[in-house]
Amino acid sequence: MGSFTLDMERFLGREHSKREEAVKKTATEVFSRIIQRTPVDTGRARANWTATIGNQTAATSEHVDPTGSGAIAVASAVVAGWDHERGSVWLSNNLPYIGRLEYGHSKQAPVGMVGVTVAEFGGIANEAAR
Length: 130
Prior knowledge:
This protein has seven helices and two strands. It has helices spanning about 10, 15-35, 45, 70-80, 100, 115-120, 120-130, and strands at about 50-55, 90. A two-stranded antiparallel sheet has the order 1-2. α2 (about 15-35) packs antiparallel against α4 (about 70-80). The longest helix is centred in the N-terminal third of the chain and has 22 residues, at about 15-35. The radius of gyration is 14 Å and the shape is globular.
């Protein structure tokens, strides 16, 4: 599955601390939406969304999180610890079938999770900047 990068600082022409807060709010909302939109059979796909700072992770887990609340809480905590000097904040899922889920394999998410959320990015970022 490909990746995408968003230049939040350019998008949000605001003073530094306000930009960082807007980036955190935007990332938290984007990550939450992706996790919540992930189809559930066992909950493993939701549990494998992993937020990191600086670099993507290649890890996978056997954990399950059918509601997504655990993955969202961990992602939110990671995002809260981010600042621009630490690099990019990432959300990764390395399960071998995550791409199939993104491209409509599940009737629970026939249009995927990531692409739908990326399409909403502008509105999410504008709301966070307010």
